Amino acid sequence: MKIIINNRSFTYDIGVRLLKTKYIKCFDESLSDIWEDIVPMELKDILKLENLEDRRVGLDCLGIQKIKEQSNAELLSSKTLDKSLTWINKNGELESKTIKDTYELYTVNNESLGLSTNSFREEKLMFIKCKDTSTDREYLLWIDYFSLMSTALGFISFSNNNILSKIDALDAIAWTIQTNVPKNKIEAIVRQGDCIMIKTAEHYKPLSTPRHLTKEEYINLLTLES
User: Fold this and answer.
1) Which residues pair with 124 in a beta bridge?
2) CB distance 167 to 201 below 8 Å
3) Which string of b and e fits 13-40 if b means at least 16 CB within 10 Å?
């Protein structure tokens, strides 16, 4: 017997555990007899699921607050930007408002998640917590530590914890956006949800390999967001 959650098929045993993870109270009479005996999945269990999409569904069932708690996440940086948002209302008129958009960057020790570590790499994971500006829904985005260091600082550090003090949440949120436009060739960035639009200089040669945005580009060139 299979259980379908968010269009993903799970074995019965894993499926009921994910449902118990997501819902506090039993919502289905067919599960009422066993509901109290079902053991909800924890973050370390979800991360061991083999399929990436299964892990995505599992993390969605767990929720942001439990992910933070069960990962023993440590807040590394919190940064707030004042943003002006513009949209068209139901009357076809332009409306705008100014909001404070806060980003929080967290570090996680691999061992706390039951993950094996590699002696050649930093024993930490990173994620950033942010909000959808149009719905206020919160998201966690996982950050590649080594790629972030390379983008923000121009090099990669494997073990120097002091290096972490040289980056912040704005470096991380900028890193989540990629482009094939070279530096100094972007005139403006417009964001609508997950859709990123870039106004470029008149003449430029696209990069063969996409790069991540820098903090300076995110702060200074993001001119409109909705």
Assistant:
1) 109
2) no
3) ebbbbbbbbbeeebeeeeeeeebeebeb
Confidence of residue 120 (pLDDT cuts 50, 70, 90): very low
Q: Label residue 197 exposed, middle or buried (CB < 10 Å: 0-12, 13-18, 19+).
A: exposed
pLDDT of residue 156: 65
Q: How many CA atoms lie within 13 A of 94 on its CB side?
A: 5
Q: Are 18 and 58 in contact (CB under 8 A)?
A: yes
Strands, sheet with 186-192, edge to edge from the N-terminal-most edge strand = 138-143, 124-131, 94-109, 74-88, 222-225, 186-192, 195-200
Lowest mean pLDDT among 76-85, 101-110, 156-165, 208-217: 156-165
Average pLDDT over residues 148-160: 77
Q: What is the 3-state secondary structure (H, E, C) of 65-84?
A: HHHHHHCCCEEEEEEEEEEE
Q: What residues pair up with 189 in beta bridges, in sequence order?
A: 198, 222
DSSP conformation class of 207: -
Copy the structure tokens of residue 205: 């040669």
Angle between helix 52-62 and 12-22 (nearest 10): 30
Which tokens hold the place of 17? Answer: 């555990």
- What pTM did the predictor assign? 0.80
Q: What is the pLDDT of residues 158-173, one digit of tens each?
A: 556 677 888 999 999 9
Q: Which residue has the tokens 């060139």?
A: 221
